[in-house]
Specification:
Helix content of chain B: under 10%
Radius of gyration of chain B: 13 Å
Structural class of chain A: mainly beta
Mean pLDDT of chain B: 87
Helix content of chain A: under 10%
Strand content of chain A: over 45%
Oligomer: heterodimer
Low-confidence stretches of chain A: none
Largest interface: A-B, 25 and 23 residues
Order of helices and strands of chain A: EEEEEEEEEEE
Shape of chain B: globular
Distance between the termini of chain A: 37 Å
Shape of chain A: globular
Number of strands of chain A: 11
Structural class of chain B: mainly beta
Largest sheet of chain B: 6 strands, mixed
Number of strands of chain B: 11
Chain lengths: ~120, ~110
């Protein structure tokens, strides 16, 4: 079974631009979460989507948004990019079942550099 | 607030020795804990998990210990190998609720050949 895939893997943008990142979860996984990882802050939760609905959100400004499609694929968007948005953006998917412990499986991430 | 923290940012271990990575958590409601390994250029990889109704769980060369009294968990790696060099994260979650995993800041494990 294929793992979580993220595109693009690397991205360079300038301040003020916007960016869209894509994530394809493991087949059958309906929960998709997004994280921002920086050296100083570690892994920080952005939001989680399940069945096309955002059901949890971290403490990030409204410039960060996302959505999920009917096939569980997800995108996140960052508008009006700032230098501090440079980070590794990780997507994780998990299986939602009564007996499952919701272990998350991560993709390789998208490395975003804002100049 | 909720937080998960690691005691040591960097741990250097001789190849063949055992490694112990520690983690503290503060949310008493957390009942599910996970250890992840992240190698350079890759996303975190699941290693082992433990539920709050357990004190210990063993995997292949790894053991996780949970002490709910002091809100502490540890990851023990037996016979550490160069391939174990990575950053290790502990994470906590609350089962039955929405997926909102809280990660620690990470410990970098360096294996000395």
């Amino acid at each position: 079974k294929a793992g979580v895939t993220q595109t693009p893997r690397y991205l360079i943008k300038t301040r003020g631009q916007q960016v869209t990142l894509s994530c394809s979860p493991i087949s059958g996984h309906r929960s998709v979460s997004w994280y921002q990882q920086t050296p100083g802050q570690g892994l920080q939760f952005l939001f989680e989507y399940f069945s096309e609905t955002q059901r949890n959100k971290g403490n990030f400004p409204g410039r960060f948004s996302g959505r999920q499609f009917s096939n569980s694929r997800s995108e996140m968007n960052v508008s009006t990019l700032e230098l501090g948005d440079s980070a590794l953006y990780l997507c994780a998917s998990s299986l939602e079942r009564e007996a499952e412990r919701k272990t998350q499986y991560f993709g390789p991430g998208t490395r975003l550099l804002v100049l | 607030g909720e937080s998960v923290g690691l005691h040591l940012p960097t741990l250097s271990v001789q190849e063949g020795d055992n490694s112990i990575i520690n983690c503290a958590y503060s949310n008493s409601a957390s009942d599910y804990f996970i250890w992840y390994k992240q190698e350079s250029g890759k996303g975190p990889q699941f290693i082992i998990d433990i539920r709050s109704n357990m004190d210990k769980r063993q995997g292949q060369r790894v053991t996780v210990l949970l002490n709910k009294t002091v809100k502490h968990l540890s990851l023990q790696i037996a016979a550490t190998q160069p391939g174990d060099s990575a950053v290790y994260f502990c994470a906590e979650n609350i089962s039955g609720g929405y997926q909102k995993v809280t990660f620690g800041t990470g410990t970098k494990l360096q294996v000395i050949p």
